[in-house]
Amino acid sequence: MSARRRRRAAADREEEEEEEEDGSDREVDLDEGLVDLDLRNDLDTPDVPPPTDSTPEILKRALSGLSTRWKNWWIRGILTLAMISMFFLIIYMGSFMLMLLVLGIQVKCFHEIITIGYRVYHSYDLPWFRSLSWYFLLCVNYFFYGETVADYFGTFVQRREQLQFLIRYHRFISFALYLAGFCMFVLSLVKKHYRLQFYMFAWTHVTLLITVTQSHLVIQNLFEGMIWFLVPISSVICNDIAAYIFGFFFGRTPLIKLSPKKTWEGFIGGGFSTVLFGFVFSYFLAQHQYFVCPVEYNSETNRFVTECEPSELFQLKKYSVPLLLQAVLGWETVNMYPFQMHSIALSTFASLIGPFGGFFASGFKRAFKIKDFADTIPGHGGIMDRFDCQYLMATFVHVYITSFIRGPNPSKVLKQLLVLQPEQQLNVYRTLKSHLVEKGILQPSLRG
């Protein structure tokens, strides 16, 4: 019998002896025994198996004569161009496809993180762990996407009687669904695995916070206008690529121990490149209604529309060039869009703070002795490896919009008014009329 089995057999005998003792002493000793067992389980936690090489055979043969460093360079470069091309294709297909893309990325990132936990503790066969994890994912998505439907598709919902009940009691239904999962978790608790099960319960909820909540914010940003979606995401992608290129060719000084391949040269070069890219890219996008208009749902055509009169953010204005730059550029004034100034703030965040999402992910992977979250994309790792900075960026953009950009939205208020009862609409009309008369905008003699 192995030493490990003897230890477990001894622990079982100790527990049987404890059950024969006095009630209060039995509870104390049993808790101590379970703590010891959990500590042994933690020490015996197996390493996650390394991911397999998913590089297509055609690329392996074509790059077989290169060194490992240059082979990885070409694989990453080719796959990056392929992903960017697919991203542009989805942009062309419209905002609805972008929402589906965000949802798909969210589910895949959740799967990669949950799978790591499952592999690490797989030998203990925790009951219902994976099933409950996916159930909670479904509940949280039902809540957030239901809120979005109620907020942006209210007129459409009011025309469908079968949906009115779901929207009216949406939060109660969401809470009831979560409570069902919570009760199932409590019922799944088994002796000797209590602490481990609570580890996994917390693991699932933190993963939901990272993936579902942030992806919901991404979609909220998209509804403000596709430009608020494209510029931040493109800035993070640009910073990642530029930092890799500068670090590959000029990197000499290590940046952070969590990610040994990151260098100060790559960090600084990527930062300047990202700010410049965001400024130029914003100028191009601001010229087109398709990118700057808020995304709205037309209930008559059952389609998303992006047509509007562009706000002041997306109208050219003349700015005076600082004196120090006038001598260099030879310009006294320059025409630009106000949004370009905001793009500098977004790009700066993507360059300075965004990489910390990657450092956080690096620390997570080091904690579990893995190189990548998965092997989905050859040369890049998993989906989470490519979007670890995007979620942090999504939160910043949402906070930035609500703090410095967003004002009252007349179209949104009108949609909410249209779903009111006729008597409520008349009360709103009378109140608004009285307010306008007091302000002197309407004449008191005007009849409603």
UniProtKB/TrEMBL annotation:
This is Phosphatidate cytidylyltransferase. One of its GO terms (molecular function) is phosphatidate cytidylyltransferase activity. Keywords: Lipid biosynthesis, Lipid metabolism, Membrane, Nucleotidyltransferase, Phospholipid biosynthesis, Phospholipid metabolism, Transferase, Transmembrane, Transmembrane helix. It is an enzyme of class 2 (transferase). GO terms for cellular component: endoplasmic reticulum membrane. Its EC number is 2.7.7.41. It is found in: Membrane. PROSITE patterns: CDS. It comes from the Eukaryota. The keyword Transferase applies. Residues 13-31 have a biased composition (Acidic residues). Residues 1-31 are annotated as: Disordered. It is a multi-pass membrane protein. One of its GO terms (biological process) is CDP-diacylglycerol biosynthetic process. Belongs to the CDS family. The chain crosses the membrane at residues 73-92, 98-121, 128-145, 165-187, 199-219, 225-251, 263-286, 339-361. InterPro entries: PC_trans, PC_Trfase_euk. Pathway: Lipid metabolism; Phospholipid metabolism; CDP-diacylglycerol biosynthesis; CDP-diacylglycerol from sn-glycerol 3-phosphate: step 3/3.
